[in-house]
């Protein structure tokens, strides 16, 4: 089955339809998603406007990028500590 990508606006529109009283079964059939996907979206984006969801996604991406940067720096520090512990320059001649 072909996997679709939905924009933030589309996700919010789907959730809004369900909030306005349209049965969930009709909403998911119309959009072509599973019930599990609908409830995952609802859990994640319930009550948000599309601009708030977009901001949340940007913050999550930035957070992931910063976590990767911290992990890289921690690895660099560990390597430098190991090199310093060996201290090859002060070895006896």
The largest pleated sheet is described as: none
Query: What is the gyration radius calculated from CA atoms?
Result: 24 Å
Poorly predicted runs are none
Structural class: mainly alpha
Question: What quaternary form is this?
Answer: single chain
Organism: Pandoraea horticolens
Coiled coil: 49-76
Keywords: Coiled coil
InterPro entries: Homeodomain-like_sf, Transposase_8, Transposase_8_domain
Description:
The protein has about 90 residues and is mainly α. It has 4 helices and no strands. It is rod-shaped and about 75 Å long. The protein starts with 7 loop residues before the first helix and ends in a 7-residue tail after the last helix. The mean pLDDT is about 85. Keywords: Coiled coil. It comes from Pandoraea horticolens. This is Transposase. One of its GO terms (molecular function) is DNA binding.
